[in-house]
Design goal:
Layout lengths: L1 H24 L7 E2 H6 L4 H10 L3 E4 L2 E3 L7 H11 L4 E2 L1 H7 L12 E5 L7 H4 L4 E5 L13 E3 L8 E3 L1 H10 L7 H8 L7 H9 L4 H13 L3 H4 L14 E5 L2 E5 L2
Parallel strand pairs: 5-6
Antiparallel strand pairs: 1-3, 2-3, 4-5, 7-8, 9-10
Helix pairs in contact: 5-7, 7-10
Length: 256
Amino acid sequence: MLGEIVWFIRSVATITRSNLKALYTRVPPGTPLTTADLNELGISADLAVYYVRSGWLERLARGVYCRPGEDLGLEPSLVMLQRKFPGMHVGGKSALEWYGIRHYVMRQPTLQLYGWASGRLPGWFFERFPAEYHRKRLFNETPEAMLHVGPFEHQAGAPDVAAPERALLELLSEVGVRQPLQEVREIVQGTYSLRANVLRELLCKTKSIKTVRLALQLGREFSLPWAAQLDPVELPTGSDRPWVSGTGDDLLVLKP
């Protein structure tokens, strides 16, 4: 009987060491892990509780863990969140900043995240990474096939980010809501390298007349190369009446 107990204890210890080795060798530093992720490493829910009590795992929230003593990485944290939020991606001003298109660099810019469904960022995330999440359905698309959204710079395992052309339109759609027009004007001046064919595709599927008109107006105002290749007749610019909106101290008037 004693021999069986000793054998059982040694077996458990061997399994624990094996699973811990997988946890520390197969998982990149700073990566948050869900219960499902731990299961793939052979770590059951009960074993995860044991690891937390033993100091080998840190519990961030219900069903979310990380290795203790590590700073969470932004990119792996975003990848994990994107499994929960359909269509979630870095977009708008943040995506443009990731591509080097910016007016000025803030000390700690607020990360702009967009997704298909409503939701709230978990506390463990926004406590570490200042961010805002917005439900936005700017284009005729589905969450399973977002237009021009994909892993940043096509890197395997990178978080989804809007292409610069989509990010520009997401930014323009925020004018009069969360985004000052003057800052947008200054950012748009740096978008001379955007692809006209991608913008044309996105503009044709844009639901916001304001966004379409603002893109055309600012593009022409700053003589941007992509604007010269866009034909307003092919785009959903709405009726012949001007689109007027108050944006703080500015009055925005967009002609067809």
